UniProtKB/TrEMBL annotation:
Name listed for the protein in its UniProt record: VOC family protein
InterPro entries named among the record's database cross-references: Anthracycline_SecMetBiosynth, Glyas_Bleomycin-R_OHBP_Dase, Glyas_Fos-R_dOase_dom, Glyoxalase_6, VOC_core
Domain of life: Bacteria
A matching Pfam family: Glyoxalase
VOC domain location: 11-123, 136-257
């Protein structure tokens, strides 16, 4: 999360894989997504994944040290990490790690009341990194039991829909809540119908969608590199997509490069 500017409070600002074996993770994602790497600015054990020379995501070997499961984590930009941490606790969420001073900012890992893990970052952000643009991930989606309750939680902790130009807006649809910044959708919260009964079969989780040129070929590469196929390639609201698990258990989704969106 090296940085050039602070902007877009409450919106996604980075995604990162917390892994226990950084070299193995680098090899796997290079084979599947074609990434190259450079050292991150947060110290030893942090790498920045690149696509066409541009930042895509972070990889860190901190999973074992933090005592957390290997997972892809979405981070949201905040102005005051301690204030956001307090809001999370007050609303039934959990702050598992931090806020900690890391590099030129402060970071924390938390879980919403349904158990979905996310992070937040106080500090500067990459000005060139934005969901759905350039080399950044195509899409972020929270799959949860109750999209309406999730929207209330995240809206309150990140101050979405407060009618300020530096905050995100939300739009309620039949079965999803979309999060927009300056007219562009940056995330989607999906359950059953927005005001329907919670679905107990869903394990709440934020999903990161990475763009590929060919979904089937990327699936083949993942299987050859020791990964597993979680959901078969199929057309979804974010384009043709498939969900994969890396050799350490990190879940992620791949989608056609030219098709993204919640609607």
């Amino acid at each position: 999360m090296s940085a050039t500017e602070r902007t877009g409070l409450g919106q996604p600002c980075w995604v990162s894989l917390l892994t226990a074996d950084l070299p193995a993770a680098q090899d796997f994602y290079s084979a599947v997504l074609g990434w190259t790497y450079r050292p991150g600015s947060l110290g030893e054990g942090f790498m920045v994944a690149l696509s066409d020379g541009q930042p895509v995501a972070g990889l860190s070997d901190a999973a074992r040290g933090l005592g957390v499961a290997v997972n892809w984590t979405c981070y949201f930009a905040v102005g005051e990490a301690d204030l956001v941490a307090s809001r999370i606790r007050e609303r039934g969420g959990t702050v598992a790690v931090g806020p900690l001073t890391v590099g030129r900012g402060r970071v924390a890992l938390a879980a919403d009341p349904a158990g979905a893990v996310f992070g937040f970052w106080e500090g500067e952000k990459l000005s060139s990194w934005s969901i759905g643009a350039g080399s950044a991930p195509a899409w972020l989606e929270l799959r949860t039991r109750d999209a309406f309750a999730a929207a209330m939680f995240y809206g309150e902790i990140f101050e979405w829909a407060v009618e300020r130009p530096d905050r995100c807006e939300v739009r309620y649809e039949d079965d999803a809540v979309t999060v927009e910044s300056h007219g562009r959708t940056v995330a989607c919260l999906r359950g059953g119908a927005v005001e329907a009964d919670p679905d107990p079969r869903i394990r709440p989780r934020w999903h990161v969608y990475f763009r590929v040129d060919d979904v089937e070929k990327a699936v083949e590469a993942a299987l050859a590199a020791g990964g597993a196929l979680v959901s078969e390639p199929a057309h979804s609201r974010a384009g043709r997509a498939a969900t994969l698990r890396d050799p350490e258990g990190g879940l992620f989704t791949i989608t056609d490069r030219d098709e993204t969106g919640c609607a």
